[in-house]
Amino acid sequence: MNERDRRLDVALLQSGKFKEALAGLSKWLSDTEEMVANQKPPSSDYKVVKAQLQEQKFLKKMLLDRQHSMSSLSSLGKEVSNHCEPSERAAIEKQLHDLMKRFDALTDGAEQREHDRRSHGSCETFPRQNKSIRILA
């Protein structure tokens, strides 16, 4: 009976950690989604595009930093769901799936926006920022 109590305690602890981690990452995703939704379209001003590119690089870094947290949460969720009833297991799997889908959408969107800003700020779009050399004939 003692081993069973210990496993139950571990399962309850893991369940609490999972719920807390899920809530934290969900909040972070909501905040980040809101930040992305408020981003302006690519500018026609070189300096603004340059700043927008830096903003996209920062967003990608934030997403990369959270990748480990997402993986850990996924592992913990699978571990917790193994000790649950089938209906609870399905609910946990759906929560994980929805969270991963949101994270992937943010990552894909960040890559697309960076690509858009890079192509919008290409050499053809803006005059060269360095001084031109004039050749006199």
Number of helices: 3
User: How would you state the average pLDDT, rounded?
Assistant: 81
Q: Give the CATH class.
A: Mainly Alpha
Unreliable residue runs: 123-137
**Separation of termini?**
97 Å
Total domain count: 1
* Inertia-based shape: elongated
CATH architecture: Up-down Bundle
Biased composition (Polar residues): 127-137
InterPro entries: Spectrin/alpha-actinin, Spectrin_repeat
Protein name: Dystrophin
Pfam families: Spectrin
Overview of this structure, please?
- This protein has 137 residues and is mainly alpha-helical.
- It has a single domain (2-120), classed as Methane Monooxygenase Hydroxylase, Chain G, domain 1 (Up-down Bundle).
- It contains three helices and no strands.
- Helix 1 packs antiparallel against helix 2 (46-81), helix 1 (2-37) runs parallel beside helix 3 and helix 2 packs antiparallel against helix 3 (86-120).
- The longest helix is centred in the N-terminal third of the chain and has 36 residues, at 2-37.
- The protein is elongated, with a radius of gyration of 23 Å.
- The N and C termini lie far apart (97 Å).
- The model is unreliable at 123-137 (pLDDT under 50).
- This is Dystrophin.
- Residues 127-137 have a biased composition (Polar residues).
- Pfam families: Spectrin.
Can I get a quick summary?
The chain contains 3 helices and no strands. The protein has 137 residues and is an all-alpha fold.
Give structural attributes.
Methane Monooxygenase Hydroxylase, Chain G, domain 1, 137 residues, Spectrin_repeat, 78% helix, mainly alpha
